[in-house]
Amino acid sequence: MLSPVTLPCPGADIAAAARTTLPVLATERLLLRAPEVTDFALFRRLFSAPSAKFMDSVPGDDAIWAQFTNYVAGWLLRGDGMFTVCHESAPVGFVFAGVEPGDEAIELGFFIAPEAQRQGFAYEAATAALAHLRSLGPDRIVSYVAPDNRASRALVARLGGSETGRLDGALVFSYPLADAGAQEARP
């Protein structure tokens, strides 16, 4: 596979300006921002790991690049996509908040680097992305989780998701469209 273009391009200023129009989510410790081409190195590492199987096989570099560009292109094509999760300005993972081919509804997905796991980053980032998705007014928000991925199943449950079916071997979890905590605070 060819490496992504990282040479200075004449249109780089256009890309940088476009990214400033996309949502940026801030939490107590994290910043969720639009991906940059330099984020691909982390994305490739995460999606090359045996734990990142697609359809029972680890994807090749071309498939990983295609997935990365699909997630990024969603911002321009549909107004949804992937956030790069940054801690102390360094990328530590990704949260997907959008739709891709075959999805039943808008999807919340999360991928945190192994060295950044067990610090609450996935929960913190996913909570911010879920609030963002809810603010868009979708009919349904789901996560797709491999049945044997106990950590993701626990995270989805903590976020308020409940199992509602299966799609292509994955468990489908649906989220309430309003944050239950926000509902309780209303008079």
From TrEMBL:
PROSITE patterns: GNAT. Residues 30-178 form the N-acetyltransferase domain. It holds the Pfam family Acetyltransf_3. InterPro entries: Acyl_CoA_acyltransferase (IPR016181), GNAT_dom (IPR000182), N-acetyltransferase (IPR051531). GO terms for molecular function: acyltransferase activity, transferring groups other than amino-acyl groups. This is Protein N-acetyltransferase, RimJ/RimL family.
